[in-house]
Amino acid sequence: MNFYIYNTMSRKKEKFIPVHKGKVGIYTCGPTVYNYAHIGNLRTYIFEDLLKKSLEYDSYKVKHVMNVTDVGHLQSDSDTGEDKMQIGAERENKTVWQIAKFYEDAFFEDCNKLNIKRPNVICKATDHIQDMINLIKTLEEKGYTYIANGNVYYSIDKFKNYNKLAHLSMEELEAGSRVEVDENKKNPLDFVLWFTNSKFKNQIMQWDSPWGRGFPGWHIECSAMSLKYLGDTIDIHCGGVDHIPVHHTNEIAQSEAAVGHTCVNYWMHGEFLVINGGKMSKSSGGFLTLSKIQEQGFSPLDYRYFCLQSRYRKQLIFSYSALKQAQSSYNKLKDKIASIVSSVKENERKDEELINKYKSKFKEQIGDDLNIPNAFTVLFQVIKSDELTNREKEILIESFDTVFSLDLLKADNNKLDNIDENLVDKLIAEREEARNNKDWVKADEIRDKLKDMGIDILDSKNGTTWKTRK
Ligand code: AMP
Ligand code: ZN
């Protein structure tokens, strides 16, 4: 089936053609680990998770690489302001290394709660300093750099079409990046590849380099690590829209100058979550985390459901009342699904052709540049359908949920406490006996009873096994 992606580079929806048939390489810009991720950041990671799972649904084998920024990111994306890691360390009276470890763990815990699948490769900037140095050396050899006041700068005037991703004039780019005047820069949009002359007196993260002891600029890490793990032609590169005019623009300048050709085939960018008309930002301090919304009585999956109701390229306005509405719709949906599942009969029809018809409808929507709201419409068609048996509905819901990841078939957790395993085994044995006696009514009754207890059973040649829906 065709998969369509809106490519920021062309500003068009394009048919996705992978570099290698059946495989997709995706690079997503990861967190800067100096604070908790806010729910805006998490919206972007949910979008990227949906992308990956939608491609997997379409039978692609996905290799997903994500960086963790634990060095080099200054407050402004364009080399100005304080060092973000140092800010975190000073705020909490810890070392930058402790801060990085703590917030990296916290980030993956949030992802886990949101059913965001772990990337295949997670690469930390501080583990790839040599790769960055090598790349800067290549850029230097090719004449794209200059040294001023001890720092190595990238000269954007040497790179043709520097503004091709942002579709902005150089003047607009300059105005947008609010750059502090840096006397060392030949062009205000030039950026630092390697700092040796750090303005931060107590900079702890430092490494030896051909240009002196120092640390890398922020943008070079994503070029170095994407080239290392995904090669010099990457299928898809993602991030939030804020990355278009600076970070990804600079990444293109670095990677393409180094290898001499286009390195990314499709650029995808998630729009912002906004609150009270403004963007949510980590550095402003007034941001909402997943734990904060949990304290207000919302589950992480309520938030995931909330995000799934709008398309990734549209801004999403956050409010607690909108989240409350999402929570209530999500609960209603789960109730409807629970009643379908509890009505599945033992020997109900399972028509593959019919099942595939709905799977194709679903695929068409997710393959339309991730039209998740329309994919939900297909889910509701399945739920309401007169032509599908409950068994077929259950199979389809389970299948769609590999993308939604909303635990649609899981029973409420409180039903799963204190499971009496002996009782489960006894019921399964009784059901086995009923099946041997072709007493389908009794076998169905027992299966329903187990379902009510939050237990799924699986019949195979080797007998019956069970698992909780937790
Ligand atoms: P950071 O940890 O600040 O580097 O950001 C991590 C990711 O979140 C990046 O892809 C950003 O583009 C994205 N992001 C930042 N703010 C928001 C927001 N308010 N809504 C959605 N995504 C955001
Ligand atoms: Zn990046």
UniProtKB/TrEMBL annotation:
SUPFAM superfamilies: Anticodon-binding domain of a subclass of class I aminoacyl-tRNA synthetases, Nucleotidylyl transferase. It is found in: Cytoplasm. The keyword Protein biosynthesis applies. A motif ('HIGH' region) lies at residues 31-41. Binds 1 zinc ion per subunit. Monomer. The gene is cysS. It comes from Clostridium moutaii. It catalyses: tRNA(Cys) + L-cysteine + ATP = L-cysteinyl-tRNA(Cys) + AMP + diphosphate. This is Cysteine--tRNA ligase. GO terms for molecular function: cysteine-tRNA ligase activity. Its EC number is 6.1.1.16. Residues 424-466 form the Cysteinyl-tRNA ligase anticodon binding domain. Residues 17-327 form the tRNA synthetases class I catalytic domain. The keyword Zinc applies.
